[in-house]
Amino acid sequence: MPRRPLIAGNWKMNGLGPGGAGLDGLALAEALVALVERGPAPACDLVIAPPATLIMRVAARLSETAIAVCGQDCHAEASGAHTGEVSAEMLKEAGCRYVIVGHSERRADHGESDAAVRAKAAAAHRAGLVAIVCVGESEAERLAGQAEEVVGRQLVGSLPEGAAAASTVVAYEPVWAIGSGRVPSAGDIAAMHGFIRRHLAGRAAGADAMRILYGGSVKAQNARTILATADVDGALVGGASLKAGEFWAIAQSCPRGI
Ligand code: PGA
Questions:
Q1: Residue nearest to atom 7 of ligand 1 (CA)
Q2: Of 42, 46, 65, 229, which has the fewest CB atoms closer than 10 Å, so is most exposed?
Q3: Ligand 1 center–CA 136 separation, angstroms
């Protein structure tokens, strides 16, 4: 079954603006728009996940473009007494079409369980957002030969009932590859993506058509190999998504003819 690749850029907590110490998120969005307008159109869907403070302005700028906007997290409830939280419905209203849930930084920093991630993904579906559900083993788990067991457990626990290709994307991100410059071998990526594909095929009808992204130190120079790997339907990109040219080069590395 052909699956159109998806390249998603996760800006994390970056994009302070011209007056801030860091990178200017609005300028980054503008640079991406310029590249998209110049073409050639990449053979993938393009998504960026700015920090919450920039979503409305970035979404307004991207509204007439082929780049969709994504939240980095959401609360499981639509509204209520949850100080500091943002709901899936709020992200939708702000202009998002996607939301990342269960990123390993949230699982680690905020103790998010699979059940919490599943509730967030269900909230995304309720709000009409596509949920990008992240899974991935730690280095210790991989060294202990438990990578598939861990990822299998996360999939069972994190994917809500009724998750389908149109509403859900799985992102396989080995924790030890995120921000480290280390990437699993193409064989290891293919093996894990094959495992996830078989797991999805065993779920509800249509789940086997879900896109499975690879994430963890994807750069312009390794993207072509990773994106050509069996059952890899795109990438979730952190650091390299903060440079418009490099993110664009990754998008242009998607195999054509899919
Ligand atoms: P990285 O991050 O590309 O900087 O490794 C990936 C991610 O955390 O999604």
A1: 238
A2: 65
A3: 12
Q: How far apart are CA 191 and CA 16, in angstroms?
A: 39
Atom of ligand 1 nearest to the CA of 177: 5
Q: What is the distance between the alpha carbons of residues 101 and 128, in angstroms, rounded to a whole number?
A: 14
Query: CA torsion sign, 228 to 44 to 102 to 127?
Result: negative
Burial (CB count within 10 angstroms: exposed 0-12, middle 13-18, buried 19+), residue 26? middle
Confirm whether pTM is higher than 0.85: yes
Query: pLDDT by residue (tens digit) across 219-234?
Result: 999 999 999 999 999 9
Residue 141 CA to ligand 1 center (angstroms) comes to 19
Residues serving a catalytic function are 103, 173
8 A C-beta contact, residue 158 and residue 197 = no
Angstrom distance (rounded) from CA 114 to CA 167: 18
Residues 225, 91: Cα–Cα separation, whole Å: 33
Spacing of C-alpha 239 from chain mean position:
13
- pLDDT tens-digit series, residues 35-52: 999 999 999 999 999 999
Rounded Cα distance between 170 and 190, Å, is 15
